[in-house]
Design brief:
By secondary structure, this protein is α+β, with helices and mostly antiparallel strands.
């Protein structure tokens, strides 16, 4: 029984390492984005989506272009907020200009008793073009 458990744990560790390598490789394949991270925190009924994006050099624009926030209602996930960088209410929180990195967060007034996940679209652009990386947290 112990050998079987050890084999299963070894398999899980190896698969996790392989999947991490694939995720890292996809970021390295970007000519614009060097690193990304995002996570959700709860503070009372405020749901905060934090993000960081690092460019490979100085970018004309860098940050996130959109964050889709979903809430679990019963057995169904529903979109409860669409944060868009094009919306002037969110632009300063989501994008920086003439910078090599952006770290910030957006806040949604939700419920600490519900579950949430977000789809974050990291974005970087310069005079040569742009790239977007999707991440689910």
């Amino acid at each position: 029984m112990k050998k079987r458990t050890l084999r299963i744990l070894s398999f899980i560790v190896i698969m996790s390492m392989l999947l991490s390598t694939v995720a890292f490789a996809s970021q390295n394949s970007s000519a614009y984005i060097a690193a990304t991270s995002a996570y959700i925190t709860y503070s009372g009924n405020n749901i905060n989506v934090y993000f960081t994006v690092v460019g490979k050099r100085l970018m004309d624009e860098i940050g996130v272009s959109e964050i889709l926030l979903y809430e679990l209602n019963g057995n169904t996930w529903s979109l409860v907020c669409d944060f868009e960088a094009d919306n002037p209410a969110y632009t300063a929180d989501m994008l920086s200009y003439n910078a090599s990195a952006k770290a910030d967060h957006v806040t949604y007034s939700g419920s600490s008793t519900k579950s949430y996940y977000a789809i974050v679209y990291f974005y970087a652009a310069d005079a040569n073009g742009s790239d977007t990386i999707e991440y689910i947290t």
